[in-house]
Write a structure and sequence with these properties.
This protein has 356 residues and is of the alpha/beta class. The protein contains 12 helices and 15 strands. The chain has 2 domains: 175 residues, 3-Layer(aba) Sandwich (Aldehyde Dehydrogenase, Chain A, domain 1), CATH 3.40.605; 165 residues, Aldehyde Dehydrogenase, Chain A, domain 2 (3-Layer(aba) Sandwich). Helix content is 37%, strand content 20%. The protein has a 7-stranded mixed sheet with strand order 10-11-12-9-8-13-14, sandwiched between helices.
Length: 356
């Protein structure tokens, strides 16, 4: 099966909006933008200076999956199928039942080897051509130390995302969009917003109230799943800490399954997830985010047109993606995760020079 055939199969097999593509053309565009040609994995393609180039996919890729979400594992599965590589997935201790079924079915459909491991196999990892890790910074560092230095290593550690509400743009409709991206995936991924920054203090208070109402409405449409004792304890601790610092809260005293915090101190910290969101007033939003440089993933803007004025600042802070409020959890396939290409970082290149 060549690359084009695998793309056609992937378009049907992985047809899913959460992976950021709508059809075969989007997958073709991904290969063309990152590798320069759809055929370059199958044969040499003429490039600049009269040289021929071919991309070589890893024979085997070892993945360490995140414990909180399976969407990153499913994306890795699809990309590995397109490359035609053998795939090994080290699953979290709790497992990913839905993903395991998808992995088994895709291996059969594509005629490729896909294995799911329930315990880490360092020797198997060292034999793989490439290693991809999703998880905490501590997990990334541990796996990095076990990986051979001559192997391709891609790591996706701790990141956070935020929203920016420009003055004059707050409203019930915007709050509903924000509530959706807070509730999606129970706010457990790197694309989940931890806070919305509002340069205007008065508007920040209004937006916090609107967001609380929108989260209550979202709860009716998409009820929070049950939470274990540890999760509830983390939420309780975060609420108490916010109250002790003199912040205003919505949802806490009413024992609601969501929380809105209006921070008075202009300080950003990560929350416990599970629909716990901060609204931070302050005109100097860049200073609020500066301590998090290197840990910032995506930013959603209340007005994309106004956002053009601050793109330079956004870039300097290290964000790899800018979108509208309500779109944080739905990145396009062409997004370069953490600022790096999805496929080009995995392949190696052969260059054929003919000077005759």
């Amino acid at each position: 099966m060549n690359t084009l055939e695998r793309i056609r199969l992937a378009s049907a097999f992985f047809s899913n909006e959460r992976l950021g593509f709508r059809g075969e053309s989007d997958l073709l565009s991904l290969l063309e933008s990152e590798l320069g040609s759809v055929d370059i994995l199958d044969r040499p393609v003429k490039g600049p200076q009269d040289v021929w180039m071919q991309a070589v996919a890893p024979s085997e890729i070892y993945h360490v999956c995140a414990s909180n979400l399976d969407v990153s594992a499913e994306m890795s599965l699809m990309l590995g199928m397109i490359l035609g590589s053998r795939l090994v997935f080290k699953l979290p201790s709790a497992g990913l039942p839905g993903f395991e079924n998808k992995a088994r079915e895709s291996g059969e459909a594509f005629g490729l080897s896909v294995e799911c491991l329930h315990s880490h196999d360092p020797q198997r990892m060292r034999e793989a051509d490439a290693v991809v890790v999703f998880g905490s910074d501590e997990t990334v560092q541990m796996i990095r130390l076990q990986t051979r230095p001559d192997r391709r290593f891609l790591a996706y550690g701790n990141k956070i995302s935020v929203g920016l509400v420009f003055p004059g743009t707050a409203g019930a409709e915007l709050a509903e969009k924000a509530a959706w991206e807070v509730a999606a995936y129970e706010q457990l991924g790197c694309l989940s917003p931890q806070a919305y920054l509002c340069p205007d203090f008065h508007e920040a208070e209004i937006f916090a109230e609107q967001l609380a109402a929108a989260l209550e409405k979202q709860e009716e449409a998409q009820p929070s799943p049950s939470r274990d004792f540890e999760q509830e304890a983390l939420i309780f601790e975060a609420r108490q800490r916010a109250l002790l610092r003199g912040n205003r809260l919505w949802g806490a005293r009413e024992h609601r399954p969501w929380t809105v915090v209006l921070r008075q101190d202009g300080f950003l910290e990560t929350g416990p997830g599970h629909r716990f969101i901060q609204v931070i007033p302050g005109s100097d939003w860049e200073s609020i985010l500066k301590p998090w440089k290197g840990k910032l993933s995506s930013i959603s803007l209340s007005d994309i047109y106004l956002g053009r004025r601050v793109l330079s600042a956004i870039g300097n802070l290290g964000f790899s993606r800018v979108c509208g409020v309500g779109e944080l959890q739905e990145p396009r396939l062409c997004w370069r995760h953490d600022g790096r290409p999805r496929l080009a970082d995995l392949v190696t290149w052969i260059t054929l020079e003919n000077k005759q």
